[in-house]
Amino acid sequence: YGNYAYQYLNYQAKFFDDPENMIYRDKAAGLRDAHSEFVHVLSETGIVGLLIFISVFALFFGYARTLMEDGLADEKRLCLQKCIIASVLVIGIHALVDNVLHVLPVALLFYCGAAVISAEMRGRDKPLVNFSLKGNLLLPVAVIALLTLNGYFVVNRLAGYVFWKKGQDSVHQGKWEQGINYYQRALDYIPENAELQFHLGAAYSYTGAAEQAIGLLTSSLKSFNDKNIYLTLGHAYRISGEYQKAEDNFRTVTRMYPQMLLPHLWLAELYYEMGDRDQSIQELRLIINAKPKILSDDVILIKHDAERFLRIILKAE
To answer: What is the model's pTM?
Structure first.
C-alpha cells in the first residue's frame, strides 16, 4: 500500500511523453492520493481490494437496514442510528469523488459510525457474536502487551522526528554540518524513512559529499518518489563528474514537470561544462521564451539567471 503516490509521477512522465498531451503541462503535480477513495483503493490493492472495500459499505448498510426494520430501539437510539447511517451515506457518496477518508475527522466519524452500528446489532435477539471477557485473561494481557510495545515504538519514532526537525532548522540557517549530524541521529531512530534519507542525501550533495549523497538518494528512491530527489541526485552526479547520469536525472524532472524551468537551467549549466554550447544555449532560450501561467519570484529569478548566462556564453564566442 502506498504505490499510488510512488508511481503517480512515473505515469505523469509517460503521459507528457506524448506531444499531444503537452497542452496540459501546467496541470502537472505530485499527487499523493486519487480524488476518489474507490479509485485509490483500486489502484493500490486491485480488484480484490476494491471488492473488500465495497463490501464494508454493503455490510454496514445491510446492518443498518436490519436495525431499521426491527424497530426494537427506543426513540433516542433510533435517532442516533439514523444520524450515523446518514453520515456514513454522505461519506460514501463523497468518497466517490474525493479522498475523504484521508481526512482524520471524517475517517474517525466513518469508523466510529461503523463500530456503533455493529455494536447495535449485538443488542438484537440473535447477536452476531456471543463474546465475553469473563474468565478470559488472555485478551487483557495481549492488549497491555500490544499497547506497551506500540508506546515504545511511538516514543522511539518521536525522538527521530525531533532530530529530523532540528536538522531541517539547521539546514535552513545554513548550518549544513550541524544539520547533517541531526539527520544522522534521526536516521538511527527511523532508518526506514525514505524521505529522511532524501533530506540527509540532499545535505551531503550541497556540501560536496557526492558519494554519500548518491548512496542515500538512490536508496530513498526505492520507496519515495519526488522531483527534488532527481534534481539533487543530478546535482550529486554532476559534481562527481558523471555527466550522463546527471543529465538523465534532470531530464526525468523535465518529463514529469514539463513546465518547470529549474531543471532546464541546470541542464544548460551541465551542457556548458561538457562543452556542448549549442545545447546549453537551446536550454537557456527555452527558459527565456517560456510563458508560465504563474510568474513567481523563483520563476523570475531563473529567467534572469538564464538571460545572464546566455549573455556570458554569447560574449565568449
So the answer is: 0.81
